[in-house]
Every structure is written in structure tokens, then in C-alpha cells.
Write a structure and sequence with these properties.
alpha/beta, Rossmann fold, 7-stranded mixed sheet, globular
């Protein structure tokens, strides 16, 4: 079957790779090269979607789940930090929101005295360098709340921290490990199998290119690739690992006429993380995938989605559930939209943990107040910003957790209504602008959010706050004619 990454029919194509196991395909190496070469531009230019797992609402939900997890551990060692490891952190925006919310919800509780170290990690060194230099992370780094590393859970047994210089291994993780991984598992290598008339086949990949002049090691070739899968009859004793083969056998027995992805990269990563944490961790993830066996029954070949020159595939959470259940792990899954995110918490403890607090907070923060449902609501409300009242816009902005991206879309309509607002509304708009400003984490995107905030403040005659935003805009983006002109206009009003 043909799966075209470039969206073109193959014409006079050159074979790049033939009859290869999917998890060993050069597709994954090309993807790694794309992220390394692109750095932060993969996100700030819109090539890679990230909003749904990088917003204040989902970060607050995760913080509440982690609060429950910590309550399930009354005997944490206060002499050692609790490490929070984020995998594939990309632009680093989620961490900024998460740290804000976790510190807020733990303030004044018995957990407030715990020392946390958030570990931002990615496969791309260029992203690590971006975080290390980001102005908003300097205070966290200096306070010891944050560190960062290039870390690949497929291959690395240690975490080499770039700020402190510390090398973390299993002996350093005295308290349970917290792992966060959004839109990460779907980008790890996987194998593809099919079941036909009681026979198990490996679907081997052949890559052809319509641009033979391109270097086959250059990720630019991704847009010209065509992917062709061809079945090869195999035995269920395919892997060197008996537990993998037992799972393959179960799919052979139950998924007649179906294609099934086998998440080797995700499984291998989980095993290394279990070794690093010595079998004590929570793994919290949001990704596109399926955790129900019946949902895996499909005669359709899984799609390879393309993001810029990166790729992703549906995650087989059922395989991960089975793998971790054999180690005494528990799985909590979101259960709403079929086409939405599967938000999952894996709780692994030796000896097994009841996890009542984790279960309860997962239900409250992920099920009852689903971040995926909020995303649906956002998409439905966005077309109506222009016809909404100021109170309605502010209500939704508050509900979002003062999301800077939602403010960006609302800004023209907030600005239109600000001059005619009554004093109560102006006060609430002023407060909302301040909260948005606190959460704004710039990644070099084209839109100048700080300039938009400054215009709101000017409309409210809040000139000192407007001046602060304009000066901050110049720190992040450099001076422009517009910011220079506005500073010159309002600076005398601040002095007065």
C-alpha cells in the first residue's frame, strides 16, 4: 500500500530504501535531523503543531494530577529532590506553565517544602541551547528549580545536566520519578504488522523519492518521499523478547484482517525509564492513540502524519498498558473523543501503590474537566469573538487560565471594547492583561503579544504597565518603529 509523505504520485522515482523493517527505517533518522536543524523554528513558524499540549489549561491539569501523586507518597525524602522529567520538550513552553501552576497549587500545603527539580530534555541540542538562554528561565535555573539536558530514553541510562553539570543515574533518584511526555511517543520508532487469514505479516517499508538529486540523508527529501508497505510472512516469535512475542501472538489471535502498530520505541523507552527510576514513577502523557483492543481492529493501514519534515503515527497504548500491567503498573486513560487526545497516566510502584489520590485527581482534572474538551470548546468559540461582549470574552479568557494564545486571537476585539467599558469591566480587563503577561513565554513567533498588551493598557490609561510591555517587547524582539513611537508617546504621561 502507498502512503505518500509528499502527497504526490510516484513518477520516475528513485529507491531510497527497500524492504526495511519500519522501526529501522531512515525515516526516523531524517526526522531527528529535521528537529536538530530546525531548532525552535519548527514551532515558531507553525511547521509542528503544539498548542493542544502546550497551554495553561493542560499544564494546570497535569499539575493537579501530580499533586495527587505526591499525596499518595507521604514518606517522600525531604533531603532529596523530586525530579520532574519532561521528554521531547520542544519549545519549552509547557514547562513554564507547569512550574507556575505547580508552585501555585502546592503553596500553603504540606508539600510546599518539597524541593522540585524540573528537567527539560529533548533529542535536539539546539532546543536545549534555546532553553538555556531564555530570559524567563534564568531565575528558575539560578534557584535550582530547573535544569536541562539532551536526553534520549531509547539509548541513555543517565541524564547529563547542562546547567549544574550533574550526571543523574538511578542512585540519585531517591524519590519517585515524575515523567511528562506530550506528543512524544507518536514520534518514536514502531513496527507495523498485519493479520491475514490467520497469518502474521511484517509490513516492510520501501521509500522512493521523486527528487533523486537530493541527498538521501537530508531531511528536505521528506516532502518528496513515497512510502510503500509490503507484507512478509513471519512467525509470532519475531522479537528477542518473549513478552513482545506474547503480545504479537495475542494480536494474531484477535485482530484478523487488521493492521497493528507495535510501539517498540515507546516500550524500550519505558523500560529504560523504569530502570532509571528503579520501578517507581508516574508517566503522564498526551498523544494521539488507542488504548482499547477493539479500536485497534482496522483494515486500514495506519497513516504517517507529516509535520514540517517530522513524522508521527498513532500510539498503540494497548501494548503499553499490557507491558506495564505485567510490572504491576496501573493505567488511567481519558475516555472522551475518539479523534481527540488520549491522555494517560501510568502509575508504577514496587511494591504496588493503591494510587487513590492520583486516580481521584486524574478523574477531576483530566476526565471531568478535560483539556481535550476545552480544546473543542476553544475551536467552537473562536469564530464568535467578534460578536461577543467584553464580559463573555473575559470569562473565556479566565476559563483558559489566561492563555496567551487565546488572548492573541481576542486582542483586536478586547481593544475595540476597552474604551467603552465601564469601570468594573476595565478593572477586570486590566487584571486579565496582567495575568496574560505573567504567562507569556515567547519563542520568536511573528506576532508581538507584548505590543498587543501595551495597546490594551494604553486604552485603559495604564501607562506604566504599557511602557513595561513595550520595553519587554524590545528586549525579546529588538526595537521597532512602532514600539519606539509608542514609548515616545506615553513616556511623558508616565513621568507626569
Amino acid at each position: 500500500m502507498i502512503n505518500g509523505l509528499g502527497g504526490k504520485k510516484v513518477v520516475a522515482s528513485t529507491v531510497i530504501e527497500k524492504d526495511q523493517r519500519l522501526s529501522a527505517s531512515i525515516l526516523w533518522r531524517l526526522q531527528a535531523a529535521f528537529y536538530q536543524q530546525s531548532g525552535i523554528t519548527a514551532w515558531n513558524q507553525g511547521a509542528v503543531p503544539y498548542y493542544i499540549t502546550n497551554n495553561p489549561y493542560i499544564a494546570a491539569a497535569y499539575a493537579r494530577v501530580i499533586q495527587g501523586f505526591l499525596r499518595d507518597h507521604p514518606n517522600l525524602d525531604p533531603q532529596h529532590p523530586v525530579y520532574i522529567l519532561e521528554l521531547g520538550a520542544g519549545p519549552g513552553q509547557f514547562a513554564y506553565y507547569f512550574l507556575h501552576h505547580l508552585r501555585t497549587i502546592l503553596e500553603g500545603t504540606r508539600l510546599a517544602g518539597l524541593r522540585f527539580v524540573y528537567l527539560l530534555t529533548d533529542l535536539a541540542e539546539s532546543n536545549v541551547n534555546f532553553w538555556k538562554q531564555h530570559p524567563l528561565y534564568q531565575a528558575h535555573l539560578q534557584a535550582g528549580r530547573l535544569d536541562m539536558a539532551r536526553f534520549d530514553p531509547l539509548t541513555d541510562d543517565q541524564i547529563h545536566l547542562v546547567y549544574s553539570g550533574q550526571v543523574l543515574s538511578a542512585v540519585d533518584l531517591v524519590n519517585p520519578l515524575i515523567v511528562l511526555a506530550n506528543y512524544f511517543l507518536d514520534s518514536l520508532p514502531a513496527d507495523l504488522f498485519s493479520v491475514h487469514q490467520g497469518m502474521l505479516c511484517e509490513e516492510q517499508v520501501t521509500l522512493t523519492s521523486t527528487a533523486p538529486a537530493l541527498d538521501p540523508n537530508d531531511p528536505a527529501i521528506m516532502s518528496s518521499l513515497e512510502v510503500d508497505f509490503r507484507p512478509r510472512l513471519i512467525s509470532p516469535q519475531y522479537y528477542h523478547r518473549p513478552e513482545y512475542n506474547r503480545l504479537l501472538q495475542s494480536y494474531l489471535n484477535s485482530l484478523e484482517g487488521s493492521y497493528v502498530l507495535f510501539p517498540t520505541g515507546a516500550l524500550d523507552s519505558l523500560e529504560r525509564l523504569l530502570a532509571l527510576s528503579e520501578g517507581r514513577m508516574i508517566f503522564l502523557t498526551a498523544d494521539k492513540g488507542e488504548h482499547r483492543l477493539e479500536a485497534l481492529r482496522s483494515p486500514l493501514q495506519p497513516e504517517i502524519s507529516v509535520h514540517g519534515r517530522g513524522i508521527s503515527m498513532i500510539v498503540n497504548f494497548h501494548a503499553l498498558d499490557t507491558f506495564l500491567a505485567a510490572r504491576g503498573g496501573q493505567a488511567f486513560h481519558s475516555k472522551h473523543r475518539d479523534e481527540g487526545l488520549d491522555i494517560t497516566a501510568y502509575l508504577v510502584e514496587d511494591p504496588p501503590l493503591d494510587g487513590a489520590e492520583t486516580r481521584g485527581t486524574f478523574h477531576a482534572a483530566i476526565e471531568a474537566a478535560s483539556p481535550d474538551d476545552f480544546f473543542v470548546l476553544k475551536k467552537a468559540f473562536e469564530p464568535h469573538y467578534a460578536s461577543s461582549t467584553l464580559d463573555q470574552l473575559l470569562a473565556f479568557l479566565r476559563l483558559s487560565g489566561y492563555d496567551p494564545q487565546i488572548f492573541k486571537s481576542m486582542a483586536p476585539y478586547l481593544l475595540d471594547q476597552a474604551p467603552g467599558a465601564d469601570p468594573r469591566q476595565q478593572e477586570r480587563l486590566f487584571e486579565a492583561a496582567g495575568e496574560v503577561c505573567k504567562l507569556y513565554y515567547p519563542i520568536g513567533e511573528p506576532f508581538d503579544l507584548l505590543l498587543a498588551l501595551a495597546r490594551i493598557y494604553i486604552a485603559l490609561s495604564a501607562y506604566p504597565e504599557a511602557l513595561d510591555c513595550l520595553r519587554l517587547s524590545q528586549v525579546y524582539r529588538g526595537p521597532t518603529r512602532e514600539t519606539d513611537a509608542l514609548i515616545a508617546q506615553i513616556q511623558p504621561l508616565v513621568w507626569d
